[in-house]
């Protein structure tokens, strides 16, 4: 006997092994196929066309890139949230789903180069007179879970006093506005534009805000190769025009029309690392260079860089030989007389640096010591202005390197230098460390001749903002300055420093979870109340001696017990308004859904309970001359109810759990609350654990309560 | 003596199964009629037709000059005057003994609560169970339950009492008490139709014995005629069987 079991196991093992062998070679031998998740419907980024083929900007881009880079993709439209979770769980390799790059998501994902710029806009029903957020006061606004536009709307919610309803897919959200349940919705601009262009009865009622970038994501720390290929491919399709063709196909052109295709001459310094310097290949690189090129790329213009030296560059702009200057140029009032400056693109300042192993970290510790500076720099000016107060001596050098060396060898105890310059030097291997915060703040700006080249200036500002939003700006900075600053910046920006432990997550989301729980309980109680009325009525109809009423009862039970709750909910919420033209609040739709569904189950066991009562009881009652109804009420029901009590309690618990399905129509109950929290912080496992625990606690309490009731109703 | 019940050509079918095949039976006022017959012959069905627990298929059942087989009769008020006692007692399990008896009088507005209570206690006394007024049904023995069931049936002051094998579900030592109560009732002049296998009771109490077989009345007469001088062969068979058990 035992042997047989063993050999059965052996067979199974062989079978599994064969399956593996059959599965593996395919993936090894040929070009690698990546499983890429995307949304179900998010036009123009992904949607099924008339031939039921998935197309859209995202799909076309990832396919074009795959073609360029010689890999294969299998795009799976599993839905946004599912795709996010599948990538996190490793079931999918990557996600391209109109996914906005946010700091929270960066904690969980590695993103490729941002590939599409977007912004959140508000849309209202066609012909609606709502044109500002103020008019939303007290009204309902529809959102789609997990979108940046939803975050944006939530950030406005308090200020403008509107309510939000969330949906899992765009169609339901739009429909909520077109049926009038909600007065407005928030969505990404291109998505709405495309939808309206294709017949959606909405109109855009606000300017794009919270602009962000879409990125291709993989699980953090995995698929480095895929990201590399994606970036390389994206660069190629951007340069060869494929990208523009794809976007144009769905939306028309996006680049800034005022500068598109033009070439501008930009003057810069000869050597001012890390802002501009020639690299090993004698190509000009640096923060300024990368920035102006990235902006040009984004805004669709071209630049010709001329490394003229700082003074020459400034003069070239004044004389009109160059269109602009970017050269680590501080924005000063004096310069503003001749130049129009862009918004500051970099904040410089003077810092003090000491040897790596030094314990000095304050200016007051410099008393009696020697300090190194470089002639003509703001660092030197700063040191000279402080030397009296703190009683240190200043040694001057002509060259930065010598100055640094004076500190590392111990001749001088510290040196003063521009912050980015110092950072860059340290990154390059100088054995110093920065010990003070930047002083004498000096914002750098891009400049054009006063009153000239305004389109270029505007394009620079827009481009800069975009790069900041997309994270490209940070990437450029980090490339030259190391990531320390960015890390601290990210930390102080708050969100990513969130406490991600269970306790932390509960604390942060306490309010949301509690109100979700309240909605769940409220839904349960109201629904079970009506479901009981409905169920008892239908159940009784099933036992009276009348064929028509029995048939009705059987049909109702059959109908509502046979229909999946999800379908019923969607039918009632979106179907009924389409049929009657009468809008129906989500809560009411939810209660109706549960009333019918749970009511049908109640009816079935009410009927069963009554039928389980000995028929002799009814005969005895009737033989005394009691009418049917009275016999039912006085004799049969009291006995039947005792039989039904356990089923009632069971149904109560089932109803509580079933409320979670109503998240589909945007009810902010516990499950939907969980979904929303996860969409923001991507802590799927932990948040679902918390949500599950809450359900279990409530159900445990309910079970206790019901056991108590049951004990009391026992004969 | 006047006619209380007159059954004419009563036919009852369940689907294709003709259970009663044209029954003609008259019950006089104050008469005790005992129905005997083999199992499945239609005794219960006949009895249940008398208060329309079964709907007659055809024929007439005239009680106090009203044909209750017709559809337009108010069956509830007819039933108020016909008490019925079942083989399995069928006491209301969710009510106490007292409540079982008082339910119909109160609900049908014949009596106030106080009157009903007084009457219930009186009835319990006549069946020898006065101390059980507040008891639960579950705490009673079978014989006690059947006596309460009789009291319950009497609470509406019926003119006729129907008994369907009232003692056959009882342990032998309980049978006597129940039969005692029935005898007392008979003595008081109650019109009774009793289905039973208790031949002793039939001999002692019955004014008339009716033998039913295969949905027909094959013979009827005084207990003496039926038990001592049975004419019908099937009746003779039947009596042989039960008396020789
Ligand atoms: N509700 C019913 N539906 C179908 N057939 C029935 C029904 N009630 C009784 N019958 C049938 O009618 C026939 C007579 O039944 P009935 O109960 O009247 O017999 P009975 O003489 O009382 O027998 P017993 O001595 O066993 O009580 C039986 O064949 C029985 O199966
Ligand atoms: Mg019978």
Give the tags.
heterodimer, A: 715 residues, alpha/beta, D-Maltodextrin-Binding Protein, domain 2, 6-stranded mixed sheet, B: 245 residues, 4-stranded antiparallel sheet, 9 helices, 10 strands, globular, binds adenosine-5'-triphosphate, binds magnesium ion, ATP binding (chain B), ATP hydrolysis activity (chain B), ATP-binding (chain B)
Provide an overview of this structure.
Chain A: One of its GO terms (cellular component) is ATP-binding cassette (ABC) transporter complex. The complex is a heterodimer of chains A (715) and B (245). With 715 residues, chain A is of the alpha/beta class. Chain A contains 26 helices and 26 strands. In chain A, strands 7, 8, 9, 10, 11 and 12 form a 6-stranded mixed sheet that branches. In chain A, strands 20, 21, 22, 23, 24 and 25 form a 6-stranded mixed sheet that branches. In chain A, strand 2 (47-48) and strand 3 (54-55) form a beta hairpin. Mean pLDDT of chain A is 83; it is low at 14-29 and 484-497. The radius of gyration of chain B is 18 Å and the shape is globular. The termini of chain B are far apart. With 245 residues, chain B is of the alpha/beta class. The chains are: A alpha/beta (715), B alpha/beta (245). At the A-B interface, helix 23 and helix 24 of A face helix 2, strand 6, helix 3 and helix 5 of B. Magnesium ion is lined by residues 43-44, 164-165 of chain B. Adenosine-5'-triphosphate is lined by residues 14, 17, 19, 37, 39-45 of chain B.
CATH fold call of the largest domain in chain A: D-Maltodextrin-Binding Protein, domain 2
- Low-pLDDT parts of chain B are none
Oligomer: heterodimer
Structural class of chain A: alpha/beta
**Which CATH C-level class of the largest domain in chain A is it?**
Alpha Beta
Domains counted in the coordinates of chain A: how many? 4
Computed Rg of chain A: 34 Å
Helix % of chain A is 40-55%
- How is the biggest beta sheet of chain B arranged? 6 strands, mixed
InterPro entries (chain A): AA_ABC_transptr_permease_3TM, Iontro_rcpt_C, MetI-like, MetI-like_sf, Solute-binding_3/MltF_N
GO molecular function (chain A): ligand-gated monoatomic ion channel activity
Keywords (chain A): Cell membrane, Membrane, Signal, Transmembrane, Transmembrane helix, Transport
Protein name (chain A): Polar amino acid ABC transporter inner membrane subunit
């Amino acid at each position: 006997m035992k042997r047989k079991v063993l050999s059965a196991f052996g067979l199974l093992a062989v079978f599994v092994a064969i399956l593996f062998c059959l599965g593996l070679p395919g993936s090894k031998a040929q070009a690698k196929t990546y499983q890429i998740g995307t949304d179900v419907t998010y036009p123009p980024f992904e949607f099924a066309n008339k031939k039921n083929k998935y197309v859209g900007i995202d799909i076309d881009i990832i396919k074009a890139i795959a073609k360029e880079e010689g890999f294969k993709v299998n795009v799976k439209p599993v839905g946004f949230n599912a795709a996010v979770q599948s990538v996190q769980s490793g079931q999918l390799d990557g996600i391209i789903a109109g996914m906005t790059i946010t700091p929270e998501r960066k904690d969980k994902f590695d993103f490729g180069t941002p590939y599409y710029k977007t912004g959140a806009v508000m849309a209202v029903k066609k012909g609606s007179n709502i044109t500002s957020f103020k008019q939303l006061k007290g009204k309902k606004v529809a959102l789609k879970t997990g979108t940046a536009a939803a975050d944006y709307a939530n950030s406005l919610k308090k200020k403008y006093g509107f309510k939000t309803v969330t949906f899992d897919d765009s169609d339901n959200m739009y429909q909520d506005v077109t049926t009038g349940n909600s007065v407005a919705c928030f969505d990404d601009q291109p998505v709405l534009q495309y939808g309206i262009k294709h017949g959606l009865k909405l109109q855009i009622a606000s300017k794009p805000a919270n602009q962000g970038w879409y990125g291709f994501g993989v699980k953090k720390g995995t698929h480095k190769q895929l990201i590399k290929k994606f970036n390389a491919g994206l660069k190629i399709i951007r340069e060869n025009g494929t990208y523009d063709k794809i976007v144009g196909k769905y939306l028309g052109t996006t680049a800034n029309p005022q500068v598109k295709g033009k070439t501008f001459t930009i003057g810069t310094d000869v050597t001012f690392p890390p802002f501009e310097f020639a690299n090993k290949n004698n190509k000009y690189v640096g923060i300024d260079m990368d920035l102006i090129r990235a902006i040009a790329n984004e805004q669709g213009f071209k630049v010709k860089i001329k490394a003229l030296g700082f003074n020459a560059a400034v003069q070239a702009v004044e004389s009109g030989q160059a269109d602009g200057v970017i050269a680590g140029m501080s924005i000063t009032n004096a310069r503003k007389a001749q130049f129009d400056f862009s918004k500051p693109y970099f904040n410089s300042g003077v810092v003090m640096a000491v040897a790596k192993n030094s314990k000095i970290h304050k200016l007051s510790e410099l008393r009696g010591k020697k300090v190194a500076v470089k002639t003509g720099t703001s660092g030197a000016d700063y040191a000279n202005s402080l030397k009296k107060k703190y009683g240190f001596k200043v040694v001057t050098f002509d060259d930065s390197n010598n100055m640094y060396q004076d500190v590392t060898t111990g001749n001088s105890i510290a040196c003063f230098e521009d912050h980015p310059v110092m950072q860059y030097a340290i990154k390059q291997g100088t054995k110093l460390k920065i010990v003070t915060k930047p002083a004498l703040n000096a914002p750098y700006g891009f400049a054009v001749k006063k009153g000239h080249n305004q389109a270029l200036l505007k394009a620079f500002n827009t481009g800069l903002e975009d790069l900041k939003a997309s994270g490209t700006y940070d990437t450029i900075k980090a490339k030259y300055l190391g990531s320390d600053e960015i890390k601290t910046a990210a930390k102080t920006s708050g969100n990513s420093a969130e406490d991600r432990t269970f306790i932390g997550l509960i604390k942060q989301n306490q309010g949301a979870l509690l109100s979700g729980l309240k909605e769940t309980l409220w839904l349960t109680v109201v629904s079970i109340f009506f479901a009981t009325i409905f169920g008892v009525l239908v159940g009784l109809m099933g036992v009276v001696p009348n064929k028509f009423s029995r048939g009705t009862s059987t049909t109702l039970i059959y109908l509502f017990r046979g229909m999946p709750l999800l379908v019923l909910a969607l039918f009632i919420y979106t179907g009924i308004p389409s049929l009657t033209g009468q809008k129906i609040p989500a809560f009411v739709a939810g209660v109706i859904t549960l009333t019918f569904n749970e009511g049908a189950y109640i009816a079935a066991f009410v009927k069963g309970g009554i039928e389980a009562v000995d028929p002799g009881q009814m005969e005895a009652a009737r033989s005394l001359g009691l009418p049917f109804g009275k016999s039912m009420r006085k004799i049969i029901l009291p006995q039947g109810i005792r039989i039904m009590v356990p089923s009632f309690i069971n149904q109560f618990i089932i109803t509580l759990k079933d409320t979670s399905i109503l998240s589909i129509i945007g009810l902010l109950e516990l499950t939907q609350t969980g979904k929303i929290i996860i969409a923001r912080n991507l802590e799927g496992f932990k948040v679902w654990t918390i949500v599950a625990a809450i359900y279990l606690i409530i159900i445990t309490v309910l079970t206790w309560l019901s056991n108590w009731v049951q004990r009391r109703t026992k004969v | 003596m006047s006619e209380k019940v007159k059954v004419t050509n009563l036919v009852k079918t369940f689907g294709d199964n003709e259970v009663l095949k044209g029954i003609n039976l008259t019950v006089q006022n104050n008469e005790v009629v005992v129905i005997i017959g083999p199992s499945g012959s239609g005794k219960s069905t006949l009895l249940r037709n008398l208060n329309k627990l079964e709907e007659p298929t055809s024929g007439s059942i005239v009680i106090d000059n009203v044909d209750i087989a017709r559809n337009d009769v108010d069956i509830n008020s007819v039933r108020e005057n016909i008490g019925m006692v079942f083989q399995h007692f069928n006491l209301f399990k969710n009510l106490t003994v007292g409540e079982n008896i008082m339910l119909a009088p109160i609900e049908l507005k014949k009596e106030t609560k106080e009157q009903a209570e007084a009457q219930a206690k009186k009835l319990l006394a006549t069946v020898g169970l006065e101390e059980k007024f507040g008891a639960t049904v579950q705490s009673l023995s079978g014989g006690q339950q059947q006596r309460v069931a009789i009291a319950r049936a009497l609470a509406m002051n019926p003119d006729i009492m129907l008994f369907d094998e009232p003692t056959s579900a009882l342990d032998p030592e309980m049978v006597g008490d129940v039969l005692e109560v029935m005898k007392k009732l008979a003595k008081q002049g109650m019109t009774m139709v009793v289905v039973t296998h208790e031949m002793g009771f039939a001999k002692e109490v019955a004014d008339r014995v009716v033998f039913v077989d295969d949905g027909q009345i094959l013979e009827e007469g005084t207990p003496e005629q039926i038990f001592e001088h049975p004419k019908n062969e099937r009746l003779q068979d039947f009596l042989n069987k039960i008396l020789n058990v």
